Amino acid sequence: MRRVKLELLLLVRNPTLLILSALIVLSAIFAVHQGQLRLTNEHSDYSALVDYAVNDFSHWQSKSTQEDFDFGSMGYYYFEPTQHPAQPLAALFSGQRVMDMLSHNIRLLAITGQIYGQERHNPDLQLHGYLDLGFIFIFIMPLLVGVMTSRLWSSENESGRLLLLRAVIPSAQSLINFRFLFIYILIALFQLLLLVYGFLAIGLSINTMFVKIYGALLLYQTVWFILSWCINRFQIQSIKAGLAYISIWILLTLVIPGVAINYSQYRYPVTQGIDMMLDQRQYMHNAWDRNKQSDLEEFYQLFPQYSHSAPMSDQFHWKWYFAMQFMSDYKVEGVKKAYWQQIHNRIEMNRKFSYLSPAIALQNHLTRYAKTDIYSQMAYWRAVEHYHNSLFSYFAQHLFYDKKPAAGLPDYPRFEYPDSE
Predict the structure, then answer these.
(1) Average pLDDT in the 275-279 region?
(2) Cα–Cα distance list, 271 to 109, 137, 268, 327, 328 (Å)
(3) pLDDT tens string 39-89
């Protein structure tokens, strides 16, 4: 117990350590507050879209009771809002969520243009992003480990205390090891307090997910302690020990992740989005000059349930228009698969680089737990495409056989995000 008090006294007398610890606490409080504010703003923005859609849908509901109701016009003009809903942990570990497009207004036109015809990322946030608790755990906490441990042996040696300790204690290294263990426990408790504060601040209880996250943080902390312990074993000067540690920090948290991002973008360029959108639109534009009945026959090969529809006349009909919108999506399916394959290749490349950088590994785990990674965004895109298919089926069963929908549109499909990804 006396040794513990002595170690605490030494730490309290270190002004650099106290300042850094205070800055970490203030940054954590600010990061959690910013995360909560960000999710509140997301909810407010989406609520505004929903309110507008509700009013617009009421307009179409009232029209549906009229004899001359143009159901196809609703498919063209009405937008149903969809959203990638945030999990509470997104306030702590924002991941790609701060850059990704989180909502789409979907109508019956080709889904390719609606999803891939715009920026995948918010360009205003691609460069700087947001401060979150994950940033503090991944980038700042290793610096605290370095300040407290990277020069333990050299500071004792240069102050002359190590020579005195060797005269009193058979193994001075045992004292250094004790200090390492003591500081490890201290930082582990510090991270525990920060994580508990984050969970309670966003209204989460201490549950199994908390244990998983804290376990990942402890494993990450252990890696940095091992690196620092190895530096101490070389018994080099303080300035060299500090430079060695900060060099490793730069390599593992900045250089390797930067190389991973740039190499994956170079190795697997995702350029199919533009090609997909252009091919889809070109097919749709060319359809106006082709034989409409022949195009419908091609469509009927995919959907024979609509093949008993009346033949096309020279007049415009919504069934042909929306069938061609669907076919334009179908024609670029191969390009879409290539697009997704490149995304999966990048994910696999990121996974391989995570073996070289504990920072990448921890980032991947935290964003997976918070559902703010690329997997979660892909699940949202799949949900949007599934909703668009149900929307097409709903309209097609009426348009192809010139049937009016039920008054008030009670069966109109609504977007639902899957509970599990």
Answers:
(1) 85
(2) 23, 34, 9, 22, 19
(3) 999 999 999 999 999 999 999 999 998 888 999 999 999 999 999 999 999
Q: Which amino acid is at 104?
A: H
Distances (CA, A) of 67 to 71, 77, 154, 410: 11, 19, 89, 17
DSSP 88: G
User: Residue 176 has what pLDDT?
Assistant: 77
- Cβ neighbours of 346 (radius 10 Å): 20
First-to-final CA distance of the chain: 50
Q: How far is CA 229 from CA 152, 154, 160, 180, 364, in A?
A: 9, 12, 20, 8, 26
- Go through the chain and tell me how many residues it has: 421
pLDDT band at 17 (very low <50, low <70, confident <90, very high): confident
Question: For the purposes of burial, counting CB atoms within 10 Å of the CB of 207, is it exposed (0-12), middle (13-18) or buried (19 or more)?
Answer: exposed
Against a cut of 0.85, is the pTM above it? Answer: yes
Token code pair at residue 112: 């390719």
Instruction: Check pLDDT > 90 for residue 117.
Output: no
CA distance 6 to 354: 39
Strand partners, 104: 82
Using only C-alpha atoms, the chain has a radius of gyration, in whole angstroms, of 29
Give the separation between CA 105 and CA 100, rounded to whole angstroms. Answer: 15
User: 374 and 343 in contact (C-beta within 8 Å)?
Assistant: yes
Q: What distance in Å separates the CA atoms of residue 288 and residue 277, rounded to the nearest whole number?
A: 18
Distance set, CA 294 to CA 138, 288, 303, 310 (Å): 59, 12, 14, 13
Per-residue DSSP letters for 208-258? Answer: HHHHHHHHHHHHHHHHHHHHHHHHHHT---HHHHHHHHHHHHHIIIIIHHH
383/330 Cα distance (integer angstroms): 17
Q: How far is CA 272 from CA 121, 149, 269, 277, 341, in A?
A: 16, 49, 9, 8, 10
- On the question of pLDDT at 162 being above 70, the answer is no
| 101 Rama sector, left if φ>0, alpha if ψ -120 to 50, beta otherwise | beta
